[in-house]
Amino acid sequence: MHVTRSTFDDVMVPNYNPANMVPVRGEGSRVWDQEGNEYIDFAGGIAVNVLGHCHPELVAAVQEQSQKLWHLSNVYTNEPALRLAKKLNDATFSERVYFANSGAEANEAALKLARRWALDKFGAEKDQIIAFNKGFHGRTFFTVTVGGQAAYSDGFGPKPGAIEHCDYNNLEQLASMMSDRTCAIMMEPLQGEGGIISPDPDFVKGVRELCDKHNALLIFDEVQSGVGRTGHLYAYMGLNVTPDILTTAKSLGGGFPIGAMLTTAEIGEHLKPGTHGSTYGGNPLACAVAERALDIVNDPAVLDGVVKKEALFRKHLEAINEEFDVFEEIRGKGMLLGCALKPEYHGRARDFMMAATAEHLMCLVAGANVIRFAPSLVIPDEDIVEGLARFKRGVAAVVNAK
Question: Which domain holds residue 167?
Answer without folding.
Answer: 57-297
